[in-house]
Design brief:
CATH class of the largest domain: Alpha Beta
Shape: globular
Number of helices: 11
Oligomer: single chain
Order of helices and strands: HHHHHHHHHEEEEHEEH
Largest sheet: 6 strands, antiparallel
Mean pLDDT: 88
CATH architecture of the largest domain: 2-Layer Sandwich
Structural class: alpha+beta
Strand content: 15-25%
Radius of gyration: 21 Å
């Protein structure tokens, strides 16, 4: 495809973002084409739905070029939740919706660029998460465990390991909730509808099927604070389910 034809195609797709019935397909095609420049222009659209589509797409593309314009949206309180998620996904930083902190970080110049280029190191992330949680991780390489204390003197083991799907490196965080007995299948599956993130599933653990609560995260932009929050959340929810399945604390 020639440059002029590609530009014309991008323009047509951007026009389609205004149409609710065509927006999803147009957005996906813009992501496929990596039309970062056109998507950044969409951030100035008076149509909030178009802005939302651009913010989502730029986050998916991890378009570092869009960081200053996204901070501008944050300053104007435009789609704050989605804008903040995109900023965090692109940068790997965990600042709250405080434009001053984002501006300060962007102002560091070369240090910021180096941080964006640095690949995720699971061992380093796990160490950082352990410091935040006050829990010493065990393991090495691509597999680690945390044991977090829970109410009533209980504890919960959370496992963290990395895996690869195609070209994407993923970090899987999960905790066992008890034996996967058929009599509990429906009750556990129904709990999935109540989860804001993550899901219950079945995994072979030490040769036996077990219910697990699992959340899978892209490794490229994972930070120690986000990993710590995920480990803590998984531990608490898994322990609650374990108590409902078997009062004895075995995890």
């Amino acid at each position: 495809m020639s440059s002029s034809r590609e530009t014309a195609e991008v323009r047509l797709l951007i026009e389609r973002l205004v149409d609710p019935s065509a927006r999803r397909a147009a957005r996906q095609e813009l992501v496929r084409l990596r039309a970062v420049e056109g998507l950044i222009e969409c951030l100035a659209s008076p149509n909030e739905s178009v802005v939302w589509a651009a913010v989502q797409s730029l986050g998916e593309l991890r378009a570092t070029e869009a960081l200053p314009r996204l901070v501008e949206l944050l300053e104007r309180d435009v789609l704050t939740t989605y804008t903040l998620e995109a900023l965090q996904e692109i940068s790997g930083q965990e600042f709250a919706a405080d434009p001053r902190k984002w501006r300060e970080w962007l102002g560091r110049g070369p240090a910021t660029s180096a941080a964006l280029r640095k690949p995720a190191d699971l061992a380093e992330l796990v160490r950082g998460a352990g410091e935040l949680l006050g829990a010493a991780p065990q393991g090495l390489g691509r597999s680690f465990t945390f044991r977090l204390s829970q109410p009533d003197g209980r504890g919960q083991l959370v496992r963290v390991h990395s895996t690869r799907t195609g070209e994407e490196e993923l970090v899987v965080v999960y905790s066992e909730c008890g034996p996967a007995q058929p009599k509990h299948f429906e009750a556990v599956l129904r709990k999935n509808a109540q989860l804001p993130v993550g899901a219950f599933g079945i995994r072979d653990v030490d040769g036996a099927a077990a219910f697990v609560l699992v959340e899978t995260l892209p490794a490229e932009r994972l930070s120690a604070p986000r990993l710590a929050r995920t480990v803590e959340r998984i531990a608490g929810r898994a322990d609650t389910v374990e108590k409902s399945l078997a009062p004895e604390d075995k995890r």
